[in-house]
Design brief:
By secondary structure, this protein is α/β, with parallel strands linked by helices. The protein has one domain: Glutaredoxin, CATH 3.40.30. The protein is built from five helices and seven strands. The protein has a five-stranded mixed sheet. Strand 3, helix 2 and strand 4 form a beta-alpha-beta unit. Helix 2 crosses helix 5. The radius of gyration is 16 Å and the shape is globular. The protein starts with a helix and ends with a helix.
Length: about 190
């Protein structure tokens, strides 16, 4: 049993390292301007994954992305073991506070590690005092995000974030750590619309 677990951990680490190396070789960047240059969802087309129910581990209530129609939604994919994720979430919290905690900005952290569960994610959010929606991303949501936007959305150390504007159009934010001021400059124009 221990040997199989060790082999499984080694395999997971090898896959993760390979994905990071491959993504590091990519020179791809995604603009994030409200003018639509970073838009990855066609206007008027609502992706199916917007309607998949997820559970907010902090409240136990279910939600869908469609529930927030007309609002700005900022989604980050995370894993509990990811130090970059903690940094990015701390910067996101600062940005939200600097903006005055706007009710029309919805923050969601989606855990994409299949080895993590709702109980551990709830503890994680509590330990770091993160007060927005946290959910374990269902497999269908993970597949949709990987297929529609990029498989790098399933690689939390890259700090992948997706912004959904008031019209439901998804915009990719650049892959990298986004400090509070840079993140605020990206989000503010969408809130002003």
């Amino acid at each position: 049993m221990l040997r199989a677990k060790t082999l499984s951990q080694f395999t997971f680490a090898a896959i993760l390292l390979t994905s990071q190396l491959l993504s590091a070789c990519s020179a791809r960047t995604s603009p994030a301007s409200p003018a639509g240059a970073g838009a990855v969802t066609a206007p008027g087309a609502t992706p199916d994954w917007y309607n998949i129910a997820m559970t907010d581990v902090q409240t136990g209530k279910t939600f869908t992305i469609s529930d927030f129609a007309g609002k700005v939604v900022l989604i980050g994919t995370i894993a509990e073991w990811c130090p970059n994720c903690i940094f990015q979430q701390a910067e996101t919290r600062k940005m939200f506070q600097q903006l005055g905690n706007p009710e029309d900005l919805i923050l969601i952290s989606l855990d994409v590690d299949s080895h993590e569960d709702e109980a551990s994610l709830k503890q994680y959010a509590e330990d770091f005092d993160f007060e927005w929606r946290f959910a374990v991303a269902p497999l269908l949501v993970q597949r949709a995000m990987g297929n529609l936007y990029n498989a790098e959305y399933l690689n939390p150390p890259l700090n992948p974030m997706l912004l959904i504007d008031r019209q439901g159009i998804a915009h990719q934010l650049p892959y990298k750590e986004k400090k509070v001021d840079a993140l605020q400059k990206i989000v503010e124009p969408y809130l002003a619309k």
